[in-house]
Design a protein that fits this description.
two-stranded parallel sheet, mainly alpha, globular
Amino acid sequence: MFKGILICDFWGAYNKISALAKQRCFYHLFTELVKVDKANSSLHWKAFRKKLSRLLKDAIRLLNRKDQLQAKDSDRLKKRLYKRLDQFLGAPSEDKDAKRLIKRLNRHRNELFTFLEYEGVSPYNNHVEQQLRKPVLTRKVSQQNRSEQGVKTQAVLMTLFRSAELHGDNPVETVLSIAKCAIEATVPWEDYFKLAA
């Protein structure tokens, strides 16, 4: 089990990951609304879209005002948001796109406002996607991977380098130290970061 908060999109593979909590990315929801707008201009869709967009934006506004509010006021506004969410998800809709999104949001209902429950959690997974930028650029500049073993090797090395950076360690020295421990069999490499923390 991952003992942190996973900020992710709605890709089904994330459903299998057990975590302390999950936050589903609002940016992906807003993008979905824009995408459906291009193909669906029904009045039912427009009404649904307007309500969902307002609900999500109100939650973000509450996050931005959290420091200015007293705890009791923040809790009251949070409860109101959850009530609005329940009413929104419980309302029937005749639009096929709205039905599809309601089904998805009901499935992830407890993962929509996690950012209001925990400090330092964003409603967007942009931070994570920016962290993937270095490995993706490295792969592109190095002319991609040419074998399955190359893919696995790059994944492991990039994970080790990025983990070291996040711990405030020198990535090259960290990987060399892990390799040395593995060769000497003094410490299993998986335990390195436990010792370094």
